[in-house]
Specification:
With 407 residues, the protein is mostly beta strands. The protein contains 3 helices and 25 strands. It has one domain: Neuraminidase, CATH 2.120.10.30. It is 6% helix and 40% strand. It holds the Pfam family GSDH.
Length: 407
């Protein structure tokens, strides 16, 4: 959706909210002062959405604790959880909270800084193929970079598993000798493709490559299950462009999921202010670092300090101050009827699960469920409950919290 169409959509939704008392609302979530107080949203629904008048009542139960520092979780068909540990291990956790021994066969990872073993996802045909995908910070002779590996997960009778046919199918290029902004989420689609999100590696010398089609930094990729560019990607016929690119101008995307229509949504980290919700479309430019909300961590403006231009897309929504988003799920289930069709986003800094209620592809309401720890990933379980993976980087540990409707 272009800036003009977002402005029109925002105007239409404002009219709906004013004329429909059924969409009762409260005040926005209280926050600290913004980092960029002189910046204004491009349309009313782009920032500080109201809370629903009635907030969900949530009970929380720790179902697993003392785990190594985790990065991602995925449910297996039998209800057990496949989890990645940042240090480079893959485990299976039972619903009772028992963790398996590390699963052999995981590729070597560079776990420094923001690196490590990152996301894990089941192939769309997992029940017949047992195929999984893992993203990780891959050590290389000239630095490191985000990579995606495929493998067959062979489950055994003792509750553990092994990996077979492990193969790296995709590598973000170029490599860079740094320890920040690897992304990364993997989102399989029903047609057998994968969306892969990556970061732009953070540092000033390289982050501008988020705007370059010859570079794999700061992009979203769309590939097939063997790692090849999707045949209908937007730049497959563009000379000098990487054919795997779906969209460009992204900073560091650690939240991504499909909505009920099968469309990709993401939430990406901003700097000081400027975390963004985007609905990335093929071939479009999302601005970073030329166009952005927020400011540098130093307090200086980002680039020329502009928040909009005709060549780049506006975010659906942004936060200032940030939530520091990681992990994202689309809610479909019976446990929380009021969340049906909402996005659930983990907040690292805010230490909560952020619930975004969507109407006409805009954020109509925002509510938050405090967890009391950094939320690294969020998943909806087969029982309709919401599961949050928390982390304590200093202790190097994680917990898994189950959220249900309070009785």
């Amino acid at each position: 959706m272009t800036l003009t169409s977002r402005l029109l959509a925002g105007t239409m939704l404002s009219a709906v909210l004013m004329s429909a008392p059924a969409l009762a609302q409260g005040e926005p979530v209280p926050t600290a002062a913004p980092n960029a107080p002189d910046q204004s949203p491009a349309f009313p629904e782009q920032k500080n959405a109201p809370q629903p008048e009635t907030l969900a009542e949530v009970e929380q139960e720790v179902i697993a604790e003392g785990l190594p520092q985790l990065w991602a979780m995925e449910f297996l068909p039998d209800g057990r959880m496949l989890v990645t540990a940042k240090e480079g291990a893959l485990h299976i956790v039972t619903p009772e909270g028992e963790a398996s021994e590390p699963i052999a066969g995981v590729p070597e990872v560079d776990a420094r800084g923001q690196g490590g073993l990152l996301d894990v996802a089941l192939a769309a045909d997992f029940e017949s193929s047992n195929r999984i995908f893992m993203s990780f910070a891959e050590p290389r002779e000239d630095g490191n970079g985000t990579a995606v590996a495929a493998a067959t997960l062979v489950l055994d009778d003792s509750g553990g598993a092994t990996l077979e046919d492990v193969e790296v199918i995709f590598r973000q290029q170029p490599s860079y000798d740094g320890d920040k902004h690897f992304g990364s989420r993997i989102v399989p689609t029903e047609d057998g493709h994968l969306y892969v999100t990556v970061g732009e590696r953070s540092d000033q010398p390289v982050r501008t490559q988020a705007q370059e089609l010859a570079s794999g930094l700061g992009k979203i990729f769309r590939i097939d299950s063997e790692g090849n560019a999707a045949a209908d990607n937007p730049f497959v016929d563009t000379e000098g462009a990487l054919p795997e690119i779906w969209s460009l101008g992204h900073r560091n995307t650690q939240s991504a999921t499909l909505d009920g229509q099968g469309r990709l949504w993401i939430v990406e980290h901003g700097a000081a202010g400027g975390d963004e919700v985007n609905l990335p479309e093929a071939g479009l430019n999302y601005g970073w670092p030329d166009v952005a909300y927020g400011v540098e961590y130093s307090g200086d403006q980002i680039g020329e300090g502009i928040t909009a231009n005709a060549e780049t897309q506006q975010p659906v929504y942004y936060w200032d101050p940030v939530v520091a988003p990681s992990g994202m799920a689309y809610y479909e289930g019976t446990e929380f009827p009021g969340w049906e069709g909402a996005f659930l986003v983990g907040g690292l800094v805010t230490q909560d699960v952020v619930v975004l209620h969507i109407d006409n592809d805009l954020v109509a309401f925002e509510e938050r469920v405090p967890v009391g720890a950094r939320v690294r990933d969020v998943r909806v379980g087969p029982d309709g409950a919401v599961y949050a993976v928390t982390e304590d980087p200093e202790a190097g540990t994680s917990t898994i919290v189950r959220m249900t409707q309070a009785s």
